[in-house]
Amino acid sequence: MTTEVASCAKKSRGRPKVFDRDVALDKAMTLFWQHGYEATSLADLVEATGAKAPTLYAEFVNKEGLFRAVLDRYISRFADKHEAQLFCEEKSVEDALRDYFSAVATCFTSKDTPAGCFMINTSATLAASSKEIAHTIKSRHAMQEKTLCEFLTQRQARGEIPADKCIGELAQFLSCILQGMSISAREGASLETLLQITDTTLRLWPQMLKI
Amino acid sequence: MTTEVASCAKKSRGRPKVFDRDVALDKAMTLFWQHGYEATSLADLVEATGAKAPTLYAEFVNKEGLFRAVLDRYISRFADKHEAQLFCEEKSVEDALRDYFSAVATCFTSKDTPAGCFMINTSATLAASSKEIAHTIKSRHAMQEKTLCEFLTQRQARGEIPADKCIGELAQFLSCILQGMSISAREGASLETLLQITDTTLRLWPQMLKI
Fold it and tell me: Residues A105, A194: contact at Cβ < 8 Å?
């Protein structure tokens, strides 16, 4: 990241440093992901992004505005790509789920980003004063279960899941495992461990459809 | 809790207010559970416990000392009781696991304590400066998986689990589900939802032993 700022500064030699919104958002994302929303101060964000405080205020109004922009960027950089693994009609249900779980596991354990799930980490310890942000993160996080519901409903309509199977319960169970994987990752579990959990889940899948 | 302090004050009328260590620890526990270790300041702890700062310092030295005492109390008030559900030789493996999961689910969703797991919540956003506390919480939290391992190993020795089944993998998977339940609870899942997840897990149990 330092390199990007440096090269950006070089390009604009003699002119005011160009504010790179995406670079700033990525640096802010790392801070929020690591320390949570509450514990990340605007001063920390100013320091990490290398932007001047007035620039950040002009662009995002306040910490909440910056966080919302970071959340959008997180979704386009990560969540959308994970979900694309799921919504691929040529794949079997098992393959789509395995690819989705593997993509999420890879993200949780990637060395390029803090360990665990961005949304679980950021919402960990929200103060009473951050109700709106808490609501935003929770709604977005609940979307993971909704996305799984949507995917499973499509596959049920195609006859790949028994018609009498409760999709809500299935999605809830799969979502619980993904959340558990996030905590395991934060506590140091390796990608290998998470892929083993994924494998167990998929080997149980045929039985999940029967019980 | 206020009532306890009041009645304690009444009893010691005319003498200095008696410091009730357990009441103070329970109040500190609620704060740490709700806001995490990092975001809970000594000033917050002084206010919540109603104790004077010098009393807290004399008793616990510093925030870290107080947290360690809270952790011990959490273990005796909660963790030990949950584990007792597991280590009951008369129960079948399934019954022991169901009772253990149900006890944990009840704790995660109890109105008497903040939602979710004390250890997952407190360790959510630890600063680099809190390495020792991070280590303490992680070691203690890893004990959940170790406890499951110990239980499953005992049952394998009794022939209730196939001899060739990898206990480590089983414990890892069950532990992942418990961690996911903690996050679900923190995001508002009801006891009913967590018991449904428990039920699904137990209905998958025979298959877990086969795959």
Answer: yes
